[in-house]
Amino acid sequence: MIALSVNLNKIALIRNSRDTTIPDIPQHAQMCIDAGADGITVHPRPDQRHIRADDCRDLAAMLEVEFNIEGNPFAGPRASDRRGVSDYPGFMELVRELRPTQCTLVPDGDDQLTSDHGFDLLRQAEELEPLLTELRSLGVRSSLFMDPVPEQMAIAAQIGADRIELYTESFAVAVSKGKDVDQCYRRFRDTAEAALEAGLGVNAGHDLNLDNLPIFRALPGLLEVSIGHALTVDALRIGTPAAVQAYRAVLAGS
Ligand SMILES: CC(=O)[C@@H](O)[C@H](O)COP(=O)(O)O
Ligand SMILES: NCC(=O)COP(=O)(O)O
Protein backbone atom coordinates (compact mmCIF):
# COMPACT_ATOMS: atom_id res chain seq x y z
CA MET A 1 0.00 0.00 0.00
CA ILE A 2 1.37 3.41 -0.95
CA ALA A 3 1.90 5.48 2.20
CA LEU A 4 0.13 8.83 2.52
CA SER A 5 2.21 11.45 4.34
CA VAL A 6 0.14 14.57 5.03
CA ASN A 7 2.05 17.85 4.72
CA LEU A 8 0.98 20.38 7.38
CA ASN A 9 2.59 23.50 5.90
CA LYS A 10 -0.70 25.16 5.02
CA ILE A 11 -2.22 24.50 8.42
CA ALA A 12 0.70 26.38 9.94
CA LEU A 13 0.20 29.16 7.38
CA ILE A 14 -3.32 29.73 8.75
CA ARG A 15 -1.99 29.68 12.34
CA ASN A 16 0.73 32.23 11.54
CA SER A 17 -1.76 34.76 10.19
CA ARG A 18 -2.46 35.75 13.82
CA ASP A 19 -0.49 35.71 17.07
CA THR A 20 -2.30 32.55 18.09
CA THR A 21 -1.89 28.81 18.68
CA ILE A 22 -4.82 27.65 16.55
CA PRO A 23 -5.01 25.57 14.46
CA ASP A 24 -2.92 23.48 16.85
CA ILE A 25 -0.38 21.65 14.68
CA PRO A 26 0.05 18.48 16.79
CA GLN A 27 -3.74 18.19 17.23
CA HIS A 28 -4.23 18.56 13.48
CA ALA A 29 -1.55 15.96 12.85
CA GLN A 30 -3.32 13.54 15.21
CA MET A 31 -6.64 14.15 13.43
CA CYS A 32 -4.98 13.24 10.12
CA ILE A 33 -3.43 10.12 11.66
CA ASP A 34 -6.73 9.04 13.24
CA ALA A 35 -8.30 9.38 9.77
CA GLY A 36 -5.68 7.11 8.20
CA ALA A 37 -2.57 9.15 7.39
CA ASP A 38 0.54 6.97 7.43
CA GLY A 39 2.90 9.84 8.12
CA ILE A 40 3.33 13.57 8.58
CA THR A 41 5.49 15.84 6.43
CA VAL A 42 6.65 19.38 7.17
CA HIS A 43 8.88 21.79 5.30
CA PRO A 44 10.40 24.30 7.73
CA ARG A 45 11.75 27.22 5.67
CA PRO A 46 14.22 29.81 7.07
CA ASP A 47 11.58 32.57 7.13
CA GLN A 48 9.27 30.22 9.09
CA ARG A 49 6.38 31.47 6.94
CA HIS A 50 4.43 28.38 7.93
CA ILE A 51 6.02 25.41 9.74
CA ARG A 52 8.35 26.65 12.46
CA ALA A 53 11.25 24.91 14.20
CA ASP A 54 9.06 24.80 17.33
CA ASP A 55 6.35 22.94 15.36
CA CYS A 56 8.91 20.36 14.30
CA ARG A 57 9.94 19.89 17.94
CA ASP A 58 6.31 19.53 19.06
CA LEU A 59 5.59 16.99 16.31
CA ALA A 60 8.76 15.00 16.99
CA ALA A 61 7.68 14.68 20.62
CA MET A 62 4.24 13.23 19.86
CA LEU A 63 4.24 11.46 16.51
CA GLU A 64 4.01 7.69 16.49
CA VAL A 65 3.91 7.52 12.67
CA GLU A 66 6.63 8.36 10.15
CA PHE A 67 7.87 11.94 10.38
CA ASN A 68 9.33 13.45 7.21
CA ILE A 69 11.14 16.78 7.41
CA GLU A 70 11.80 18.38 4.02
CA GLY A 71 14.03 21.32 3.24
CA ASN A 72 17.13 22.89 1.81
CA PRO A 73 20.13 21.24 3.48
CA PHE A 74 22.21 24.37 2.96
CA ALA A 75 19.73 26.71 4.70
CA GLY A 76 21.51 28.34 7.63
CA PRO A 77 20.21 29.88 10.88
CA ARG A 78 17.85 32.87 10.76
CA ALA A 79 16.53 35.00 13.63
CA SER A 80 12.79 34.89 14.25
CA ASP A 81 10.86 38.09 13.59
CA ARG A 82 7.88 37.04 15.72
CA ARG A 83 7.59 37.48 19.48
CA GLY A 84 7.61 34.12 21.26
CA VAL A 85 8.78 32.18 18.19
CA SER A 86 12.18 30.47 18.32
CA ASP A 87 14.83 31.25 15.76
CA TYR A 88 15.26 28.98 12.76
CA PRO A 89 18.38 26.97 13.72
CA GLY A 90 19.39 25.92 10.22
CA PHE A 91 17.93 22.96 8.35
CA MET A 92 20.55 20.33 9.09
CA GLU A 93 20.88 21.57 12.68
CA LEU A 94 17.15 20.92 13.13
CA VAL A 95 17.41 17.46 11.56
CA ARG A 96 20.38 16.60 13.81
CA GLU A 97 18.37 17.72 16.84
CA LEU A 98 15.18 15.81 15.98
CA ARG A 99 16.35 12.80 13.90
CA PRO A 100 13.03 12.31 12.04
CA THR A 101 12.14 9.04 10.33
CA GLN A 102 12.97 10.58 6.96
CA CYS A 103 14.67 13.71 5.71
CA THR A 104 13.90 14.86 2.17
CA LEU A 105 16.55 17.23 0.83
CA VAL A 106 15.11 19.90 -1.48
CA PRO A 107 17.20 22.45 -3.47
CA ASP A 108 15.04 25.43 -2.50
CA GLY A 109 16.33 28.97 -2.27
CA ASP A 110 15.41 30.71 1.01
CA ASP A 111 12.91 33.07 -0.60
CA GLN A 112 11.23 30.80 -3.17
CA LEU A 113 7.42 30.93 -3.21
CA THR A 114 7.40 27.13 -3.17
CA SER A 115 9.54 24.18 -4.22
CA ASP A 116 9.87 24.30 -8.00
CA HIS A 117 12.78 22.08 -9.04
CA GLY A 118 14.78 19.04 -8.10
CA PHE A 119 18.53 18.63 -7.60
CA ASP A 120 20.90 18.54 -10.57
CA LEU A 121 23.22 15.77 -9.47
CA LEU A 122 25.60 16.44 -12.36
CA ARG A 123 26.49 19.63 -10.42
CA GLN A 124 25.46 18.90 -6.85
CA ALA A 125 26.38 15.27 -6.15
CA GLU A 126 29.69 16.15 -4.48
CA GLU A 127 28.16 18.59 -1.99
CA LEU A 128 25.26 16.28 -1.16
CA GLU A 129 27.23 13.08 -0.55
CA PRO A 130 28.55 13.97 2.94
CA LEU A 131 25.07 15.05 4.04
CA LEU A 132 23.61 11.75 2.91
CA THR A 133 26.38 9.94 4.78
CA GLU A 134 25.59 11.97 7.91
CA LEU A 135 21.86 11.23 7.66
CA ARG A 136 22.65 7.54 7.48
CA SER A 137 24.88 7.84 10.56
CA LEU A 138 22.00 9.57 12.37
CA GLY A 139 19.65 6.70 11.48
CA VAL A 140 17.53 9.01 9.30
CA ARG A 141 16.25 7.70 5.97
CA SER A 142 17.35 10.11 3.20
CA SER A 143 15.41 11.17 0.13
CA LEU A 144 16.46 13.55 -2.66
CA PHE A 145 13.87 15.79 -4.34
CA MET A 146 14.36 15.09 -8.05
CA ASP A 147 12.91 16.01 -11.41
CA PRO A 148 11.84 13.03 -13.59
CA VAL A 149 15.27 12.48 -15.13
CA PRO A 150 16.07 8.75 -15.39
CA GLU A 151 19.76 9.40 -16.11
CA GLN A 152 20.37 10.87 -12.65
CA MET A 153 18.96 8.00 -10.61
CA ALA A 154 22.18 6.00 -10.62
CA ILE A 155 24.05 9.04 -9.29
CA ALA A 156 21.55 9.44 -6.44
CA ALA A 157 22.20 5.84 -5.43
CA GLN A 158 25.97 6.17 -5.84
CA ILE A 159 26.15 9.12 -3.41
CA GLY A 160 24.14 7.25 -0.78
CA ALA A 161 20.50 8.33 -1.04
CA ASP A 162 17.99 5.82 0.30
CA ARG A 163 15.11 7.21 -1.77
CA ILE A 164 14.24 9.89 -4.28
CA GLU A 165 11.11 12.02 -4.19
CA LEU A 166 9.80 12.68 -7.68
CA TYR A 167 8.77 16.35 -8.11
CA THR A 168 5.33 15.91 -9.64
CA GLU A 169 4.22 19.43 -10.58
CA SER A 170 4.74 18.78 -14.31
CA PHE A 171 2.43 15.77 -14.09
CA ALA A 172 -0.20 17.82 -12.24
CA VAL A 173 -0.05 20.48 -14.95
CA ALA A 174 -0.38 17.88 -17.72
CA VAL A 175 -3.46 16.37 -16.08
CA SER A 176 -5.06 19.75 -15.35
CA LYS A 177 -4.56 20.80 -19.00
CA GLY A 178 -5.46 17.37 -20.37
CA LYS A 179 -2.34 17.61 -22.54
CA ASP A 180 0.54 15.14 -22.96
CA VAL A 181 -0.53 13.14 -19.90
CA ASP A 182 0.64 9.79 -21.30
CA GLN A 183 3.97 11.25 -22.44
CA CYS A 184 4.51 12.90 -19.05
CA TYR A 185 3.53 9.76 -17.16
CA ARG A 186 5.98 7.72 -19.23
CA ARG A 187 8.80 10.06 -18.20
CA PHE A 188 7.93 9.53 -14.53
CA ARG A 189 7.56 5.79 -15.07
CA ASP A 190 10.98 5.59 -16.77
CA THR A 191 12.52 7.56 -13.90
CA ALA A 192 10.88 5.35 -11.29
CA GLU A 193 12.11 2.23 -13.08
CA ALA A 194 15.63 3.67 -13.23
CA ALA A 195 15.44 4.47 -9.51
CA LEU A 196 14.30 0.93 -8.68
CA GLU A 197 17.06 -0.47 -10.87
CA ALA A 198 19.57 1.60 -8.89
CA GLY A 199 18.20 0.25 -5.59
CA LEU A 200 16.42 3.45 -4.58
CA GLY A 201 13.00 3.77 -2.97
CA VAL A 202 10.52 5.99 -4.81
CA ASN A 203 8.50 8.75 -3.13
CA ALA A 204 6.59 11.52 -4.90
CA GLY A 205 5.02 14.88 -4.17
CA HIS A 206 4.01 18.42 -5.09
CA ASP A 207 0.60 19.36 -6.48
CA LEU A 208 -0.75 15.83 -6.26
CA ASN A 209 -4.52 15.90 -5.87
CA LEU A 210 -7.70 13.83 -6.24
CA ASP A 211 -7.70 14.35 -10.02
CA ASN A 212 -4.15 13.27 -10.83
CA LEU A 213 -3.44 10.76 -8.05
CA PRO A 214 -5.74 8.07 -9.52
CA ILE A 215 -3.39 8.01 -12.54
CA PHE A 216 -0.09 8.59 -10.74
CA ARG A 217 -0.63 5.87 -8.14
CA ALA A 218 0.10 3.23 -10.81
CA LEU A 219 3.77 4.29 -10.85
CA PRO A 220 6.03 1.24 -10.46
CA GLY A 221 7.39 0.84 -6.92
CA LEU A 222 5.80 3.99 -5.49
CA LEU A 223 6.25 3.83 -1.71
CA GLU A 224 4.97 7.20 -0.44
CA VAL A 225 3.21 10.33 -1.57
CA SER A 226 3.39 13.52 0.48
CA ILE A 227 0.42 15.79 -0.07
CA GLY A 228 -0.46 19.08 1.57
CA HIS A 229 -1.79 21.93 -0.53
CA ALA A 230 -4.62 20.14 -2.39
CA LEU A 231 -5.56 18.01 0.62
CA THR A 232 -5.89 21.15 2.74
CA VAL A 233 -8.09 22.77 0.09
CA ASP A 234 -10.22 19.61 -0.06
CA ALA A 235 -10.49 19.71 3.74
CA LEU A 236 -11.94 23.23 3.55
CA ARG A 237 -14.72 21.67 1.48
CA ILE A 238 -15.29 18.26 3.12
CA GLY A 239 -13.37 18.35 6.40
CA THR A 240 -9.95 16.96 7.26
CA PRO A 241 -10.90 13.37 8.18
CA ALA A 242 -12.96 12.97 5.01
CA ALA A 243 -10.17 14.50 2.91
CA VAL A 244 -7.56 12.14 4.34
CA GLN A 245 -9.91 9.19 3.81
CA ALA A 246 -10.53 10.27 0.21
CA TYR A 247 -6.79 10.24 -0.55
CA ARG A 248 -6.37 6.95 1.25
CA ALA A 249 -9.17 5.44 -0.82
CA VAL A 250 -7.48 6.56 -4.06
CA LEU A 251 -4.18 5.04 -2.94
CA ALA A 252 -5.97 1.83 -1.99
CA GLY A 253 -7.28 1.68 -5.53
CA SER A 254 -10.91 1.97 -4.61
C1 LIG B 1 9.04 19.81 -1.59
C2 LIG B 1 7.63 20.07 -1.94
O1 LIG B 1 7.22 20.00 -3.05
C3 LIG B 1 6.73 20.38 -0.86
O2 LIG B 1 6.99 19.48 0.14
C4 LIG B 1 6.94 21.70 -0.20
O3 LIG B 1 6.71 21.51 1.16
C5 LIG B 1 6.00 22.75 -0.65
O4 LIG B 1 6.35 23.88 0.12
P1 LIG B 1 5.23 24.98 0.45
O5 LIG B 1 4.14 24.29 1.24
O6 LIG B 1 6.00 26.01 1.23
O7 LIG B 1 4.72 25.46 -0.88
N1 LIG C 1 6.80 16.84 -0.91
C1 LIG C 1 5.50 17.31 -1.33
C2 LIG C 1 4.73 17.74 -0.14
O1 LIG C 1 5.11 17.47 0.98
C3 LIG C 1 3.48 18.48 -0.32
O2 LIG C 1 3.42 19.16 -1.54
P1 LIG C 1 1.99 19.83 -1.87
O3 LIG C 1 0.98 18.72 -1.86
O4 LIG C 1 1.72 20.84 -0.79
O5 LIG C 1 2.17 20.44 -3.24
Any low-confidence stretches, pLDDT <50, length ≥5?
none
Mean pLDDT over the full residue set: 98
Q: Order of strands in the sheet with the most strands?
A: 1-2-3-4-5-6-7-8
Please compute the radius of gyration using only Cα atoms. 17 Å
Dominant shape: globular
Write the SSE topology.
Blueprint: E1 3-7, H1 9-15, H2 25-34, E2 39-42, H3 53-62, E3 66-71, H4 91-98, E4 102-105, H5 121-137, E5 141-146, H6 153-158, E6 163-167, H7 169-177, H8 181-197, E7 201-205, H9 213-216, E8 222-227, H10 229-238, H11 240-251
Parallel strand pairs: 1-2, 1-8, 2-3, 3-4, 4-5, 5-6, 6-7, 7-8
Helix pairs in contact: 7-8, 10-11
Bound molecules: 1-deoxy-D-xylulose-5-phosphate (DXP) and the ligand NCC(=O)COP(=O)(O)O.
Family: Belongs to the PNP synthase family.
Binding site for 1-deoxy-D-xylulose 5-phosphate: 45, 50, 114
Active site: 43, 70, 206
